[in-house]
Design goal:
Radius of gyration: 58 Å
CATH topology of one domain: Tetrahydropterin Synthase, Chain A
Strand content: 15-25%
CATH superfamily of one domain: Band 7 domain
CATH class of one domain: Alpha Beta
Strand order of the largest sheet: 3-2-5
Structural class: alpha+beta
Order of helices and strands: HEEEEEEEHHHHEHHHHHHHH
Number of strands: 8
Helix content: 40-55%
Largest sheet: 3 strands, antiparallel
Shape: rod-shaped
Number of helices: 13
Length: 384
């Protein structure tokens, strides 16, 4: 009875001691066995471990890749444009003994607080050496690798290895956003004004060329019309002269009657002239002041062709247009009226899209004049 009284408590104490001396290391953890704060054993492989109860203790650290958020920092690149950079990093505890010595009892939380300034300093150093455009371009991945390499050397003193550094967001400070947007708007407006000015210049050139062509065409047409009118008047005068030249005295008498009709048309006309003037020659005398009376016709009346005979000798036309074409065929040839040389090819057939593209490239918007063929100068010399 007495033996059982001591055996049962002893077995219980031994069971508690055996349980206290065992510890389990998960595959996601690393363990340190501490004795009075000093590391006496490192357990990195998963499984069971042993320690001295009440004297030794076990501290576990995460063996997985951890993530740390870095506070946004203001970076001033080489082009002096202030940027706010928000980043994060991933690290892993590779040396738990050194990690314990440098970080202390704070563990992973203390490590995050110690690593954040290191990452911020590396970000400022690397991004301060490049321009802001490089931070926002495809070189961003290379810059993140440089930040990681710069932070690895310092982080190794804490027993950790920086696996990766990423820039989450790169933005302008709120105070600079409005000014930046206004500058962008001003640049776009200036560019639009420049394009409009070049467009107006090209439009003015086209209008000037078109106006010049219009003036030349109208001038040539008026010159051609004057030539046609002059030739028509000359032919009409020749016809009149041929008609009235048959009897000059009768022509003079007929012209005087026409002048009387014009002068005395309104019935209340006063004429101040000498009574002996030529104007009243046929009013003062039947024979017009010619002794012996009017001369006899110089042509035989029977020899004068009748109206029917004159009409029968004229060609017949189907329309007035055909008659005009026949008259124009008899006059001197008139050169064909056309646009100035190169106007149709250079101006009328110019593609508007080509003009706009040329203006965007800094051009004038007008097609370049083509060099004449090599044989044109010789041909012109021969014609001269």
């Amino acid at each position: 009875m007495r033996k059982s009284t001591f055996i049962l408590p002893g077995l219980f104490v031994l069971a508690i001691a055996a349980y206290s001396s065992l510890f389990v290391v998960d595959e996601r953890q690393k363990a340190l066995v501490l004795q009075f704060g000093r590391v006496v054993q490192v357990k990195e492989d998963p499984g069971l471990g042993f320690k001295i109860p009440l004297i030794q203790e076990v501290v576990y650290y995460d063996d997985r890749i951890r993530s740390i958020d870095v506070q946004p920092v203001r970076v001033i690149p080489s082009d002096n444009r202030v940027l706010e950079v928000d980043s994060f990093a991933r690290y892993r505890i590779t040396d738990p003994v050194r990690f314990r010595e440098r970080v202390g009892v704070g563990g992973e939380a203390a490590a995050d607080a110690r690593l954040a300034p290191i990452l911020s300093s590396a970000t400022l150093t690397v991004l301060g050496e490049v321009e802001s455009d490089a931070i926002l371009s495809a070189d961003r991945a290379e810059l993140m690798d440089r930040i990681r390499d710069a932070a690895i050397e310092t982080a190794e003193g804490f027993g950790v290895t920086i696996v990766d550094v990423r820039l989450r967001r790169t933005d302008l400070p709120d105070a600079n956003k409005i000014a930046t947007f206004q500058r962008m708007i001003s640049e776009r407006r200036q560019e639009a004004a420049d394009l409009r000015a070049r467009g107006r210049e090209a439009s003015q050139r086209i209008r000037s060329a078109a106006d010049r062509a219009v003036r030349e065409i109208v001038s040539a047409a008026e010159r051609q019309a004057q030539v046609i009118r002059g030739q028509a008047d000359a032919r009409a005068a020749a016809i009149y002269a041929a008609a009235y030249g048959t009897d000059e005295e009768f022509f003079s008498f007929y012209e005087s009657l026409l002048r009387y009709r014009q002068a005395l048309a309104n019935g209340n006309t006063r004429i101040l002239t000498s009574p002996d003037g030529e104007f009243f020659a046929y009013l003062q005398s039947v024979n017009g002041g010619i002794e012996g009376g009017l001369p006899a016709p110089s042509v035989d009346p029977d020899a004068v062709p009748s109206i029917d005979d004159l009409l029968a000798g004229l060609p017949e036309y189907d329309s007035a247009g055909d008659a005009m074409d026949a008259v124009l065929d008899e006059v001197a040839p008139i050169p064909e009226i056309g646009a100035p040389p190169g106007f149709e090819d250079d101006v009328l057939e110019t593609d508007p899209a080509t003009v706009v593209d040329d203006l965007m490239d800094g051009g004038t918007g007008m097609p370049e004049p083509e060099d004449p063929p090599a044989g044109d100068d010789d041909a012109a010399t021969d014609q001269d």
